């Protein structure tokens, strides 16, 4: 199994910054893409940012230029630096990792426990 443990998040004023971290542990052969999703009340979960094992990044249009995703492959950890936060960024943020448990097994998606981010106006 792959466990993802998130840290960070909290309450911040508009224009402020927060950093989320997510560490993967457990038994797995490899981790491919890692990333962050968010879900606001009454809305569907949406992708925020993703990063491949090689470092290629992708961002939702709504966060481009404000959020930065990065990863430490040696530590199996992914980060989300969030700057210039807006009230509409308020949501529960979930870490995601696509991992392969064994060399020739299929990849599966694993999820963190979720971190509340609240941006006050």
Explain the overall architecture:
It is a single chain. The protein has 121 residues and is mainly β. Helices cover 0% and strands 60% of the residues. It has no helices and eleven strands. The chain has strands at 2-8, 10-13, 18-26, 30-39, 46-51, 57-59, 67-72, 77-82, 91-100, 107-111, 115-120. The strands form two sheets. Strands 2, 4, 5, 6, 9, 10 and 11 form a seven-stranded mixed beta sheet that branches. Strands 1-3-8-7 form a four-stranded antiparallel beta sheet, with no helix packed on it. Strand 4 (30-39) and strand 5 form a beta hairpin. It is elongated. The mean pLDDT is 96.
Low-confidence stretches: none
Please state the average pLDDT score: 96
The number of distinct helices, counting runs of at least 4 residues, comes to: 0
What characteristic shape results from the CA principal axes? Answer: elongated
Short characterization:
The protein is mainly beta. It has strands at residues 2-8, 10-13, 18-26, 30-39, 46-51, 57-59, 67-72, 77-82, 91-100, 107-111, 115-120. The strands form two sheets. Strands 2, 4, 5, 6, 9, 10 and 11 form a seven-stranded mixed beta sheet that branches. It has a four-stranded antiparallel beta sheet with strand order 1-3-8-7, with no helix packed on it.
